[in-house]
């Protein structure tokens, strides 16, 4: 059986795995940074009304400190939502990537349709902003007054990926504007305030697998310590299954690919995941489940990487 079929079989047999740790507070798009012998959990107000990013800390992924503000949206911006914060370390700094939706109005960039059948009336100014700090607790300050991807694009869910010492932003070009969402990547300038080359397309949503919808959410990368293979996990609405986590891999270990076809990693009404190594050296995956407000909670799973495939480990 080839590696793609093996990956699909392993993923499908594990989708019923139970979480190894979970929160009792509402959270979407959880992101965990392991730093200084602790877990740092970043979040924003679910869906709408957010004006910043918050952080909690824990020693065991179960008991969390109260939320503290890590970033306040700049006063020059009138936000309607803040989504999907991630914090990464690079070059001795902490970098916060987050999605900000702004109110429509004079002086705010206008979004135009960029795909077949897309109507302009529902498009709102939304983009991936970058902030930096000397501490994982913040305060995080914007590297520029606006999103880093093209301002005329409706973008979301930016993440940091580093290859051969070069930092890249990987982000979603939203399906609302293009009809069929894509995941794009571009190299970042040293100050993370701009791209040094135009974005390149990594994938489009509907081509992922039979039944895949137009949504691209939450890209995140993991490199296998066993083989150097590069995995991409992301989320889509798959027909008959709902909100899911998909996985594909690049055997070359390069973001340029070539990439395998996608397989299901988790299909139990949960997604927007990320991967981290815990304080005991175990590979973990976290996501929110279910995908319906106000019920969303953080779930944490054990993850196995055999060098060719990722799979969620069935609890014993």
CATH architecture: 5 Propeller
Q: Tally the structural domains.
A: 1
CA-CA gap between termini: 27 Å
SS-based class: mainly beta
The sequence of SSEs as H and E is HEEEEEEEEEEEHEEEEEEEEEE
How many beta strands in the DSSP annotation? 21
Distinctive features:
about 325 residues, four-stranded antiparallel β-sheet, mainly beta, about 5% helix
SSE blueprint:
Blueprint: H1 3-13, E1 21-22, E2 31-35, E3 38-43, E4 52-58, E5 68-72, E6 79-90, E7 93-102, E8 126-133, E9 141-142, E10 155-163, E11 166-173, H2 175-178, E12 182-187, E13 200-204, E14 217-223, E15 230-238, E16 242-250, E17 263-266, E18 271-277, E19 283-289, E20 297-305, E21 310-312
Antiparallel strand pairs: 1-20, 2-3, 3-4, 4-5, 6-7, 7-8, 8-9, 10-11, 11-12, 12-13, 14-15, 15-16, 16-17, 18-19, 19-20, 20-21
Short description:
The protein has 316 residues and is mainly beta. The chain is built from two helices and 21 strands. The chain has a single domain, classed as Tachylectin-2, Chain A (5 Propeller).
Structure characterization notes:
The chain has 316 residues and is mostly beta strands. The chain has one domain (3-111, 121-312): Glycosyl hydrolase domain, family 43 (Tachylectin-2, Chain A), CATH 2.115.10. Helices cover 5% and strands 44% of the residues. The protein has 2 helices and 21 strands. The chain has helices spanning 3-13, 175-178; strands at residues 21-22, 31-35, 38-43, 52-58, 68-72, 79-90, 93-102, 126-133, 141-142, 155-163, 166-173, 182-187, 200-204, 217-223, 230-238, 242-250, 263-266, 271-277, 283-289, 297-305, 310-312. The strands form 5 sheets. Strands 1, 18, 19, 20 and 21 form a 5-stranded antiparallel β-sheet that branches. It has a 4-stranded antiparallel β-sheet with strand order 2-3-4-5, with no helix packed on it. Strand 6 (79-90) and strand 7 (93-102) form a beta hairpin. It is globular, with a radius of gyration of 18 Å. Mean pLDDT is 92; it is low at 1-20.
């Amino acid at each position: 059986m080839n590696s793609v079929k093996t990956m699909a079989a392993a993923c499908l047999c594990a989708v019923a795995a139970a979480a190894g740790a979970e929160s009792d507070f509402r959270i979407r798009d959880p992101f965990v940074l392991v730093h200084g012998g602790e877990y740092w959990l970043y979040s924003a107000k679910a869906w709408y009304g957010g004006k910043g990013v918050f952080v909690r800390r824990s020693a065991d992924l179960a008991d969390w400190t109260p939320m503290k503000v890590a970033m306040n949206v700049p006063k020059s911006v009138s936000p309607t939502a803040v989504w999907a914060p991630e914090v990464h370390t690079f070059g001795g700094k902490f970098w916060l990537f987050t999605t900000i939706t702004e109110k429509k109005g004079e002086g705010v960039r206008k979004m135009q349709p960029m795909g077949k059948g897309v109507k302009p009336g529902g498009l709102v100014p939304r983009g991936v902003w970058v902030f930096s700090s000397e501490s994982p607790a913040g305060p995080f300050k914007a590297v520029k007054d606006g999103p880093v991807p093209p301002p005329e694009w409706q973008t979301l869910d930016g993440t940091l990926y580093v290859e051969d010492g070069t930092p890249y932003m990987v982000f979603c070009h939203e399906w609302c504007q293009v009809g069929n969402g894509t995941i794009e990547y571009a190299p970042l300038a040293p100050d993370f305030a701009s791209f040094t080359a135009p974005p390149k397309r990594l994938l489009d949503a509907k081509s992922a697998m039979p039944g895949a919808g137009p949504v691209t959410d939450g890209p995140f990368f993991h490199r296998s310590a066993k083989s150097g293979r590069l995995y991409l996990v992301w989320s889509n609405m798959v027909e008959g299954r709902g909100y899911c986590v998909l996985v594909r891999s690049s055997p070359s270990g390069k973001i340029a690919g070539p990439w395998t076809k996608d397989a299901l990693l988790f299909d139990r009404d949960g997604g927007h995941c990320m991967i981290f190594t815990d304080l005991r050296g175990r590979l973990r995956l976290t996501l929110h489940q279910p995908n319906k407000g106000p019920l969303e909670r953080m779930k944490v799973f054990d993850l196995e990487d055999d060098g060719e495939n990722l799979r969620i480990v069935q609890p014993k």
